[in-house]
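Entry under discussion copied across for reference:
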Amino acid sequence: MSFEDAEARIITHMNEDHADALRLYVRAFTEYAGKAPGDEEIRMLGLDAQGMTLQVPEAEGRVHIPFDPPLSDPSEAHDRLVALAQKARAALDA
C-alpha cells in the first residue's frame, strides 16, 4: 500500500478518534512546546514518509512534525504515531 492510499484513512482516523494525541504532538514537538493550545480543534492535514502536517488555529496555518527516521512504509505509521504520543506524554508529564 502506498502512502497516498493510506493517507486519507490515517488522517480521518486521527481527526475523528485521536484529537488528544494531535494536541500532545503540537505541545511537545512544535514551537508551541510546553504551551497548551487553545480549545480550537487541531487537525491532521497530511501524512507522508517524512512526517505529518497539522492545522493549528493559533498558528493561523500549518505546522510540520518530522518523523525521525522517516517511515519506510505506511504500515509503520500506527506504531510511530503511538510512540510519538507516548514520548509527548512523557515530555509533558501528561
